[in-house]
């Protein structure tokens, strides 16, 4: 039995390669931790919003409606009107009172961009008080997404006449 303790001139060669196996193991463990933790961090936060104590706006005696029809034509009250003549027609209807609220209502199929274009026309004409009109489904008919045919609808805002609908914007 012989043991050689002196290695003499034999030297072990340096290994310059990095062992990446532990690095990959750590990365996989971190990936699993984040995959488990990510869904837990998206919890819905319940918020109890305070009630508003603002007084309802007085209802106008005769509201002025600007209607955007399905074919994108405009009607001021019941009178069809061209977009270019809108500022003059509004001035005539309101006796140049630019503080009067204009109620904008649009057909359900009118794209949002076209409604915004009409609101911009009102703004450029100097009418900054704009009310948006819509109908809210009655509570027994389900969500508004289910759609209604106009029957069983009720006004949603206290600051507009009952036949007007809901919402107001500035």
TrEMBL record:
<dbReference type="GO" id="GO:0022857">
    <property type="term" value="F:transmembrane transporter activity"/>
</dbReference>
<protein>
    <recommendedName>
        <fullName>Biopolymer transport protein ExbD</fullName>
    </recommendedName>
</protein>
<keyword id="KW-0472">Membrane</keyword>
<feature type="transmembrane region" description="Helical">
    <location>
        <begin position="26"/>
        <end position="47"/>
    </location>
</feature>
<dbReference type="GO" id="GO:0005886">
    <property type="term" value="C:plasma membrane"/>
</dbReference>
<comment type="similarity">
    <text>Belongs to the ExbD/TolR family.</text>
</comment>
<feature type="region of interest" description="Disordered">
    <location>
        <begin position="138"/>
        <end position="170"/>
    </location>
</feature>
<dbReference type="GO" id="GO:0015031">
    <property type="term" value="P:protein transport"/>
</dbReference>
<dbReference type="InterPro" id="IPR003400">
    <property type="entry name" value="ExbD"/>
</dbReference>
<keyword id="KW-0653">Protein transport</keyword>
<dbReference type="InterPro" id="IPR014170">
    <property type="entry name" value="TonB_ExbD_1"/>
</dbReference>
<comment type="subunit">
    <text>The accessory proteins ExbB and ExbD seem to form a complex with TonB.</text>
</comment>
<keyword id="KW-0813">Transport</keyword>
<keyword id="KW-0997">Cell inner membrane</keyword>
<keyword id="KW-1133">Transmembrane helix</keyword>
<comment type="function">
    <text>Involved in the TonB-dependent energy-dependent transport of various receptor-bound substrates.</text>
</comment>
<keyword id="KW-0812">Transmembrane</keyword>
<feature type="compositionally biased region" description="Polar residues">
    <location>
        <begin position="140"/>
        <end position="156"/>
    </location>
</feature>
<keyword id="KW-1003">Cell membrane</keyword>
<dbReference type="Pfam" id="PF02472">
    <property type="entry name" value="ExbD"/>
</dbReference>
């Amino acid at each position: 039995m012989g043991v050689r303790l002196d290695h003499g001139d034999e030297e072990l060669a340096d290994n310059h390669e990095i062992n990446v196996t532990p690095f990959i193991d750590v990365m996989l463990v971190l990936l699993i931790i984040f995959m488990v933790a990510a869904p837990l961090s998206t919890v819905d936060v319940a918020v109890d919003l305070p009630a508003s104590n603002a007084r309802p706006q007085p209802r106008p005696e005769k509201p002025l409606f600007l209607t955007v029809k399905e074919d994108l034509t405009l009607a001021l009250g019941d009178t069809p009107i061209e977009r270019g003549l809108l500022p003059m027609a509004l001035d005539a209807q309101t006796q140049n009172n630019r503080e009067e609220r204009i109620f904008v209502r649009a057909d359900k199929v009118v794209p949002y961009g076209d409604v915004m274009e009409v609101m911009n026309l009102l703004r450029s004409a100097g009418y900054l008080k704009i009310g948006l009109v819509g109908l809210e489904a009655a509570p027994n008919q389900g969500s508004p997404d289910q759609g209604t045919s106009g029957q069983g609808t009720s006004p949603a805002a206290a600051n507009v006449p009952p036949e007007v609908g809901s919402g107001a914007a500035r």
